[in-house]
Specification:
This protein is 49% helix and 11% strand. By secondary structure, it is α/β, with parallel strands linked by helices. The protein is flat and about 65 Å long.
């Protein structure tokens, strides 16, 4: 098995790979102890060629790999590409294009929600993958033969999966569906983690907008610290502590140290003083700048009935067209659609609107009805 450890060898491999109209790519990385993922291995293959690239090799320059990733004449095939693309973007400042994500393609072709690579291998190759090396330590050197065999399998089988899914998309006229989905994955903004937006990841509830303003300041500070020190967010400050400080809004060291999530030592530390300053900044936030809390409104009975009908329609259309329901519309999307014909949701845009959104709106407006025919749900359109 070819393992590349020098820049010259990588250049030779990329020269060969760029002659193909596609390459399959995967990465192995570690991020348990860091904020940014640590790239440990790159696997690449095309017809008749495959190799492992060891980015931990001393003196290895990944420039030839990044150049290959931006070669518009070569389709880059990944499975569940988001984390791989994040790594490529962080290290090389580029986004692989054109892109083909077999997980998304599998959903478009009806192989279920978030279909796993092993499931596609089972479907198209007819074998069961040995996943025992999945959680191995990829930073340890030398790599074992078992690790290498596991790693290369993530791109060798992907070749046949890509060809099968590509043909199925072309045969069903759905290639443009996948292209729409790839636009999000190939947008650099997808991989930029703005500290000012870090508070949107928080799942805990704030009592009032001013409490959320404090949490927003705390989350921004934590994000900056985590990125600067390359440490996991939870190692800098846990979510529970942000919720506690945000909702209690301590005014001094004593009150800060009395919180269940903050020790007396932390309260007396330099960080404790920073946190108290952030509390004051959030407390003094101008009314017009306060975060808007999500409204937990109770849906009217009519909307609940509409949601149930939309669920039936979604299940029927996804079954008839062999598309994963989750890819078409989520449960929150259906709730928004039930009360607003102009909701800003995916299922009212692009191919989803053609497949489901238009029928959903007609159902709401009484232009179509649902009926059973031979045990299957059918839509009946009213004339006039």
């Amino acid at each position: 098995m070819l393992t590349i450890t020098t820049t010259n060898a990588l250049q030779d491999a990329c020269d060969q790979l760029c002659q193909s109209d596609y390459v399959t790519v995967d990465t192995e990385f570690m991020r348990e102890r860091t904020f940014w993922p640590e790239l440990c291995l790159i696997q690449i293959a095309c017809d008749g060629f495959e190799c492992l690239v060891d980015p931990l090799s001393q003196g290895l320059d990944l420039a030839p790999f990044f150049k290959l990733m931006t070669d518009e004449s070569v389709v880059k095939v990944f499975h569940s590409a988001r984390q791989d693309l994040e790594i490529v973007h962080n290290l090389g400042g580029v986004i692989p294009k054109p892109l083909f994500d077999t997980q998304v393609a599998g959903m478009v072709c009806g192989f279920g929600d978030s279909v796993a690579y092993a499931g596609l291998v089972r479907k198209f190759i007819g074998i069961e993958l040995d996943k025992s090396s999945r959680f191995t330590d990829w930073k340890r050197r030398p790599l074992t033969d078992k690790q290498k065999t596991y790693a290369i399998g993530d791109v060798t089988y992907l070749r046949d999966i890509y060809k099968a899914l590509k043909k199925q998309l072309e045969d069903t006229g759905r290639s443009h569906w996948l292209s729409e989905e790839m636009e999000i994955l190939t947008n650099p903004e997808t991989y930029i983690q703005h500290p000012d937006h870090a508070w949107k990841r928080l799942k805990g509830r704030a009592r009032k907008p001013v409490n959320m303003a404090v949490m927003k300041e705390m989350a921004r500070w934590r994000e900056e610290e985590a990125q600067d020190k390359n440490q996991p967010r939870g190692r800098i400050l846990k979510d529970d502590a942000i919720y506690d400080i945000g909702n209690q809004m301590p005014r001094n060291e004593k009150e800060l140290g009395q919180l269940r999530t903050i020790s007396a030592g932390q309260a007396r530390s330099h960080k404790g003083k920073i946190w108290l300053d952030l509390v004051e900044k959030g407390r003094n936030c101008k009314p017009e700048d306060l975060p808007v809390l999500p409204k937990s409104r109770k849906l009217p009975a009519s909307a609940l009935a509409t949601i149930e009908l939309l669920k039936v329609l979604l299940k029927s259309i996804s079954s008839q067209n062999h598309v994963a329901p989750k890819l078409i519309a989520s449960a929150p999307d259906l709730e928004k659609l039930a009360v607003d014909d102009n909701a800003d949701i995916k299922c009212l845009k692009g191919w989803r609107h053609e497949l489901f959104g238009e029928d959903a709106l007609d159902l709401k407006r009484g232009k179509t009805a649902l009926t059973l025919e031979d045990g299957k749900v059918k839509t009946v359109r009213y004339e006039g």
